[in-house]
């Protein structure tokens, strides 16, 4: 029987020989993972067998590089992958774990809820809890806080998280709330921002979440950034990042000069309406931004000056108010529809 394809999409993978990280197209089947240099390639760069494999998440071996998970094969070979945001990592991890479990039991793959590594009551769903905490109206409020001559944007205190969990009846008391918060930190949903929170997360045998007003944290896929006291010009530049994150993920983008296509991580924000794009294999600084106020976005079937082998459908175009054209390619037709819908809404409502 042909292997059943379970999930596919872009992830960033660490090289097995060199230590470089590169975006690859990944296909998960019920017995292994294949990864390709490009989505259109017919032959994979490599294959990872899942029989006898183990999975570790979150993998915190790489410092500032978050949202990493590790697959160790039966022959003790380590493979490291990085997702572009928390929800994406959770989808991949859940399906890979299920595929490994099914192989061990000699069963056909079928999706089923699995418990995460931290020992919490069966009624607790950290993914759902994280979604509630990020709610713009009733969730934990992201603030701009000053500490040690630095400004932390889009963050909150450990005490705030504990109090939110209690006031929203997710925990009965502070020790219970602290246990939930520690689970969110262990699973990578929350990240430590300041030195105090980082010391708690990195020292000792177990990661510790601190129920303190001076311990700062942020959502893993938020617009968090830290800065020293800056000039008025810097503040204007940072204004681009203050909008709420509406959508994020990897897309193919055509370059303006060479007309070649590269995988970029995109983060769409509203008010102000900006879409920033990043090299998914590198740091947190964006390569560029698209101001979406007054822009037009449409699905297209053809891209001028594009090489034939680069085209594989699911294309769309953004034309800004300054008449700059951006050509992008989604992985699927459904994903293209979702991006177009989200960008259209932001371009009309955001400033």
TrEMBL record:
The keyword Cell wall biogenesis/degradation does not apply. Signal peptide: none annotated. GO terms for biological process: actin cytoskeleton organization; intracellular signal transduction. Residues 4-101, 244-348 form the PH domain. GO terms for cellular component: plasma membrane. InterPro entries: DEP_dom (IPR000591), PH-like_dom_sf (IPR011993), PH_domain (IPR001849), Pleckstrin (IPR037370), WH-like_DNA-bd_sf (IPR036388), WH_DNA-bd_sf (IPR036390). Keywords: Acetylation, Phosphoprotein, Repeat. It holds the Pfam family PH. Residues 136-221 form the DEP domain. This is Pleckstrin. It comes from Seriola lalandi dorsalis.
